[in-house]
């Protein structure tokens, strides 16, 4: 029984690492809609992310409406992946929620770290489900907040463009070696 458990853990671990290796920014999408069940799985992955004090200071706005997507496209300096993606997930932080427990550092840093962790979980889930994704960070925050009719206290932090990839060959980017970015202090 113990051997069976070890084998399952190895398989699960390999799958996660494979998703990390395979994940890349997709900027060209097929027009096919993603089933709601898959979007829900991706949202669940985001909600499982760690957060300071387990406050979960995030909101996920799923945008399929073309008129709203057009407003977001304009707010994103007309990035083509925003226009092409069948689904956008706008991830908003609630700085006030983090501020209540962690003061200024919570409002200025922790809520952003927390939403970034949620976004990364969503990207890995999308990869595991065969959904292409692109993390978009260049946009007019206020215009995006207004486009999704978010409460004024919320801050638009990340937009994930999601869809089935229409790219022939993914662009593989070189990564720095661990030895170049890590230092062991013993």
* Share of helix, binned: 40-55%
Q: Looking at the chains present, what oligomeric state does this protein adopt?
A: single chain
Mean residue pLDDT: 90
Q: What is the CATH first-level class name?
A: Alpha Beta
**How many DSSP-defined strands?**
4
Let me know the CATH homologous superfamily. NADH Oxidase
Shape: globular
Count of discrete alpha- or pi-helical segments spanning 4 or more residues: 7
Whole-number radius of gyration?
A: 18 Å
- Total count of domains: 1
List low-confidence stretches.
Answer: none
- Assign the CATH topology: NADH Oxidase
Give the name of the CATH architecture. Answer: 3-Layer(aba) Sandwich
**What's the story with the biggest beta sheet?**
4 strands, antiparallel
Elements, N to C (H/E)? HHEHHEHEHEH
First-residue to last-residue Cα separation: 37 Å
Task: Assess the beta-strand content as a share of residues.
Answer: 5-15%
Trace the largest sheet across and list its strands. 1-2-4-3
Keywords: Flavoprotein, FMN, Oxidoreductase
Family: Belongs to the nitroreductase family.
GO molecular function: oxidoreductase activity
Organism: Acetonema longum DSM 6540
Q: Describe it for me?
A:
The protein has 186 residues and is of the alpha+beta class. The chain has a single domain, classed as NADH Oxidase, CATH 3.40.109.10. The protein is 50% helix and 15% strand. The chain contains seven helices and four strands; from the N terminus they run H-H-E-H-H-E-H-E-H-E-H. The protein has helices at 2-22, 36-47, 66-75, 80-84, 95-128, 141-147, 178-181, and strands at residues 58-63, 87-93, 132-136, 155-163. The chain has a four-stranded antiparallel beta sheet, sandwiched between helices. The protein starts with a helix and ends in a 5-residue tail after the last helix. Residues 24-82 form the Nitroreductase domain. It holds the Pfam family Nitroreductase.
